[in-house]
Design brief:
The complex is a heterodimer of chains A (about 280) and B (about 425). By secondary structure, chain A is mainly alpha-helical. Helices cover about 70% and strands about 0% of the residues of chain A. In chain B, strand 6, helix 6 and strand 7 form a beta-alpha-beta unit. Classes of the chains: A mainly alpha (about 280), B alpha+beta (about 425).
Chain lengths: ~280, ~425
């Protein structure tokens, strides 16, 4: 008898077992991600091709516009590599938080019918974008081959920056997912955020172009640190990040994630009532 | 025996915005309301919000191994109580102590994805109900065998017949092995054969000392399954005790409400919600159109239904479907048959009316479902339990009708001795 778990349901009670439940449902996290990936590549015949085509076309456009027309490409590593090392984390981040923001609405029937920690839904939706990131990594390898470019030892740090990008995407995704349930017209705001984000993140340009006294405020954007980190890991010493800025960006990622988790948890209990 | 569930003073209150019937907000409204609220605060006029108590001060205990039948009319608070027990929504007040693993089955096929195969869906749905990979692996063969879908495991479930779909979905749930199992109305779907199998499976579950909470509008299921019944009405617990007595009390509440208007704004429904049923009123009419006190065999039934559209609806079909207590579909009055489509403008409120003539249903309880949609294209709004009504025996029928089972009372002639007529 004593082996049976006991649950106390009470108004306004912060779930004591919340994180234990998240752990207990860890396999659901994996299964939901698996479902999303399976469904995506089952439904579209050219699923994988499309996953590769999108970053590739964006890369071509950026290289032509900024590299050739605006003349941003300088000496050093090929401009296509410079752009792609920024594009890779940015596309991941933008896709991931958009997916996460819509994930709750896409899983309404689960939310109104079964209990599990809701956080698993947006978090697992980010995994799909992570798979895309890995697939897009193939383009990077191809670019290495085309330009006969060998990355330095810094490339070993790439997983660290992927992890930070993941945390940033989950943090943003949790905020937007919860807001999206509460305010239905929030979904119109999301594409706008993606657009603005692209301009204030060093994707088409490098952070070195930002004036010295603006670099710290610029780094308040969590993606600045992530992109600079990617660039450094891929292109080596020449793109060594501005360390105080990187630290600030990473701190912002932590703040974003912690606040996102807090906000999401405060909203989570009312999801089933308002969705 | 110890208590599986102890509920104390459980209440649930929904806040209804005065402005719109929508449950969610639009950011633009909030911004606009914020400004208005600010203006009001300056003027000193408080903002009013309507409260709706779905449950109020519910107290009950359920012992381990009990089989509880939870009954009540639409909007009585059954679904809300189940959702609180299942931790899907949280109560506004009160406490509930639950001992043991609880699984709630509020819908058949929760988490099923049409594009995925039967095999994939078993894994997914198992994980959603909180089974570990090892548990699913162990039970996989049993689940598939119980559902009788072995040959179709690698086929996407969108190609399944509805019967196969329901069987597979229920089978996953039937193998959860929880200490407490909550089942809401899921047996209303599926073929009779499989329903029996499910009931047998649930008997097993109960036999193993597990606790079962069953919600159904089907009183014969309730009577055959439960050891105790709890009756909710208007968010309050009004009766608890021996199934026969509580079911009778329920039937009395239905009888009181048999005629009259049922509010449909807060009931379980499906569909895209472009338009919604907001109310239904049942009237008993004599063949000549005169209003009667209660529906009786051979009389007419009038259903006056109100709808509200939030988006334009073009040439839609309305169906009024009557079910018996076993969930058997008896009557489908469908506007398509009359060739009259229903078109609604945005924000239009409309009242429509069905009149069923010479309804020869035997005295019993029946439920009516409503459906609005575009045939084979979209469900706009569907309500399985829109209203319940009771057909009464007329005095002259009372002597004869009760001993004979069946739902339809046919008018017939009888000749005890036919002579001179050739049987050839």
């Amino acid at each position: 008898m004593s082996r049976k778990q006991e649950v106390l349901i009470e108004a306004g009670r912060t779930e004591r077992h919340y994180w234990r439940d998240v752990w207990r449902y860890r396999e659901l996290f994996y299964f939901l991600a698996w479902r999303d990936i399976l469904v995506r590549y089952k439904q579209t015949a050219i699923g994988i091709a499309w996953t590769l085509l999108r970053p590739l076309l964006t890369l071509v456009a950026f290289t032509l516009v900024f590299g050739k027309l605006a003349g941003l490409g300088g000496s050093g590593p090929p401009y296509a590599l410079v752009v792609f090392s920024g594009l890779l984390p940015w596309l991941f981040f933008a896709n991931a938080f958009t997916e996460a923001a819509n994930s709750l609405m896409d899983n309404t029937s689960l939310i109104t019918k079964v209990y599990f920690p809701r956080m698993i839904i947006p978090a697992s939706s980010v995994i799909v974008s992570l798979v895309e990131l890995v697939l897009s990594g193939l383009i990077l390898v191809a670019l290495f081959a085309v330009y006969r470019y060998v990355p330095g030892w810094q490339v070993l740090l790439l997983p660290v920056f992927v992890a930070v990008a993941f945390a940033a995407a989950v943090g943003t995704g949790l905020w937007l997912a919860a807001l999206n349930v509460k305010y239905r017209d929030f979904r119109y705001v999301i594409p706008f955020l993606v657009q603005i984000g692209l301009y204030v993140s060093p994707v088409g340009f490098t952070s070195a172009l930002v004036p010295e006294n603006w670099r710290l405020p610029f780094s308040l954007n969590p993606m600045v640190g992530v992109i600079d980190g990617f660039r450094w890991a891929i292109l080596g010493a020449e793109y060594e990040p501005y360390w105080p800025g990187l630290a600030l960006s990473f701190l912002m990622v932590l703040v974003l994630l912690a606040a996102g988790v807090r906000y999401f948890r405060s909203m989570e209990k009312s999801f089933a009532d308002v969705i | 025996m110890s208590e599986a569930i102890t509920a104390h003073n459980v209440s649930k209150c929904f806040m209804l915005g005065t402005r719109s019937p929508e449950k969610y907000h639009a950011l633009r409204d909030v911004l606009a309301q914020g400004l208005r609220g600010l203006a009001r605060a300056v003027v000193g006029q408080p903002q009013q919000r309507q409260q709706f108590w779905a449950l109020r001060d519910i107290d009950f205990q359920i012992k381990e191994g009990e089989r509880i039948g939870l009954i009540g009319r639409n909007g009585a608070g059954k679904s809300t109580l189940l959702k609180i027990l299942g931790r899907i929504t949280e109560p506004t007040g009160g406490t509930i102590r639950i001992r043991g693993r609880l699984a709630s089955l509020l819908e058949v096929g929760t988490g099923f994805h049409p594009e995925l195969t039967g095999r994939e869906n078993v894994w997914l749905s198992g994980a959603i109900y909180g089974l570990s990979r090892r548990e699913i692996l162990r039970k996989f063969d049993d689940i598939v065998a119980f559902a009788e879908v072995e040959q179709f495991l690698e086929v996407p479930v969108k190609r399944y017949s509805s019967g196969m779909y329901v069987r597979l979905a229920f089978s996953v749930a039937a193998h959860l092995d929880p200490d407490i199992l909550i089942i809401d109305e899921v047996l209303a779907v599926g073929d009779i054969q499989f329903q029996k199998k499910c009931l047998a499976k649930m008997e097993d579950i109960a036999g193993e000392g597990r606790t079962l909470i069953l919600v159904s509008h089907n009183m014969s299921t309730i009577l055959s399954m439960s050891t105790r019944c709890i009756l909710l009405d208007g968010g309050a617990l009004v009766a608890s005790g021996r199934p026969q007595e509580v079911v009778r009390a329920y039937q009395d509440t239905v009888q009181d409400q048999s005629l009259g208007r049922t509010d449909l704004t807060r009931v379980e429904r499906y569909g895209n919600g472009w338009a919604r049923f907001t109310g239904i009123q049942t009237q008993a009419l004599a063949a000549d159109g005169q209003a009667l006190e209660f529906p009786s065999t051979g009389g007419d039934l009038g259903f006056t239904i109100t709808l509200h559209a939030s988006q334009p609806v073009k040439e839609a079909t309305v169906a009024l479907i009557i079910y018996d207590e076993m969930g058997g579909r008896l009557i489908d009055a469908n506007s398509l048959i009359k060739g009259k489509g229903l078109s609604l403008e945005t924000e239009e409120t409309r009242t429509i009316r069905f009149r069923l003539r010479n309804v020869r249903l035997k005295p019993d309880l029946y439920t009516a479902a409503l459906w609005l949609g575009v045939q084979n294209l979209a469900d706009i709004d569907g309500i399985r339990y829109a209203t319940t009504f009771r057909v009464e025996a007329r005095r002259e029928d009372i002597l004869y009708t009760s001993p004979f089972p069946g739902v339809y009372m046919c008018e017939f002639d009888y000749d005890p001795d036919v002579r001179g007529v050739s049987t050839q």
